[in-house]
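dude i think i finally got it to work??
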Amino acid sequence: MTLLAIDFNNLHQILRNLYQEMLPLCGDMTGVAKGVAGLGALFYVAYRVWQALGRAEPIDVFPLLRPFAIGLCIMFFPSIVLGTINAVMSPVVKGTHTILESQITDVQDLQKQKEQLEYDARVREGKAWLVDDEVYDQKMKDLGILDATEKLGMWVERSFYDMKMWFRQLIRDFFELLFNAAALTIDTLRTFFLVVLSILGPLSFALSIYDGFQSTLTNWISRYISIYLWLPVADLFSAVLSKIQELMLKTDMALLQDPSYVPDGSNGVYIVFLIIGIIGYFSIPTVSGWIIQAGGGSSFNRNVNTAAAKGAALAGGVAGSAAGNVAGRLLGK
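look at this
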């Protein structure tokens, strides 16, 4: 049972396609940027030539090539600038995603093994009918009319067990939805920022020609790379969470192999790590900023982290309140 039938992988792929579809819009800004860059190059060269003539100094030609190099980047911005950066960073994204996929595959295999061990544990307990519909139906048929009390007891115990597992799965699905929504939020913000930086990139390059705006060029490059790294950092974070889940599954499987152990189907620890993951996803911009320093993002990171903490606290409070009310009613019966 799932809380909402949402294919988050498909949504992430849509964002990848959106970025590729929006890249051609860089050409619309190239014309404007070339005009701004041409005017800036005129002032840049004239000022330095006049300054050298006024001081009776030889003209240094090499620094005068800077605006022309930037103008060349503006003319072929999608291929020279974006193409080069994306080509360099693409192996990093593919490598981290490969790590995540391999980790997820291991977790899925362990989850299937755990489910089989839980079933075997119920069989050893003599209550396979709690988790197997066929065994339950067969056992109910085998009981006669004189066993009505036992049949009623089995029905009550099976109903209570199903209700308990349904509620636990509901809480788990709720937090998995929040977890996936946090990852999608980060990916959406990343795509939006990259699209804005890509479309307005030629204008940033053109403004960097003017005196006083030279840092615009390095700031644009550092911010673009920093935001581009959000995806590989998110994949590494997801891989770490998957590794933690793998270790948890191995611990549960070791317990299930004990003949005296009776599983309770609790997902409490797993839900705790989902909450940690929700908060952790919103720290990705900060971690990315540690890899390459990009100024101007500290206030954004603080706001995102604060919002994540409040959202997780609200989600935890709602889930805890719901869990307490339902559990109290079930136990009261």
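The two ends are 25 Å apart (CA to CA).
im so relieved honestly
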